[in-house]
Amino acid sequence: xxxxxxxxxxxxxxxxxxxxxxxxxxxxxxxxxxxxxxxxxxxxxxxxxxxxxxxxxxxxxxxxxxxxxxxxxxxxxxxxxxxxxxxxxxxxxxxxxxxxxxxxxxxxxxxxxxxxxxxxxxxxxxxxxxxxxxxxxxxxxxxxxxxxxxxxxxxxxxxxxxxxxxxxxxxxxxxxxxxxxxxxxxxxxxxxxxxxxxxxxxxxxxxxxxxxxxxxxxxxxxxxxxxxxxxxxxxxxxxxxxxxxxxxxxxxxxxxxxxxxxxxxxxxxxxxxxxxxxxxxxxxxxxxxxxxxxxxxxxxx
Length: 301
Known about the structure:
Layout: H1 9-20, E1 22-24, E2 30-32, H2 33-48, H3 52-64, H4 68-75, H5 81-90, H6 94-101, H7 107-116, H8 120-127, H9 133-142, H10 146-154, H11 159-168, H12 172-180, H13 185-194, H14 198-206, H15 211-220, E3 242-243, E4 252-253, H16 261-265, H17 268-273, H18 279-285
Antiparallel strand pairs: 1-2, 3-4
């Protein structure tokens, strides 16, 4: 988010005052910003002192003043969460709306908005401020709008919820976001084998460290083999980057975090990539000095 957009409205009002020196009154006349600021401070102080009439006046200014800077100044002093929610949901000016959202702390009210508001953008804003994991789980699993669901998943820390969403959410973007936050190898393997969306499966492949699962993908999954270097043109090794050898495929890409160097240098992993090659052929290739002699050790590890 642009830092300039998150300035408080008191600062914004002062900046505006340097340019315009005055604000529109409710009746259309102009009034000096210095007077507006002084009046706002007085009303806010009275409200904080328990004057319900002043609190009502402050809320009215925050919701209804024609000048966005004045509304923003009022929002900076409002503590009533229902008033802030009203402004956050309904003010047409982004800065005023965000100022109100940023002052909302009532988790029960935020949960109510996140689960029930008809406007998905409002629900999303509420979700971004929720800390209650049970509420986030509810929204992540059940909200039909992909942006809202993803926002909830991003704030979810419960691995069981993330696994559930990754495997079962009806929207593929929700599943993909959950996969990105998942480390459970059995869950990731299940997704690679069963999810119907290639993008979701690709995200799962990128996070798999189980060597047997990776080898199975290399041998059997033509669609995803290349994601981690599988298939006829790719194989894996954490100690290599790009190897070009005339007797091998012209460019063998080797992403990090994959089959161990020892396994690869031993030839078994390469045999999985190129089953038609004998172990002795692989053994003698030497791969541009990246692999040590037939000891199972890899240079640089």
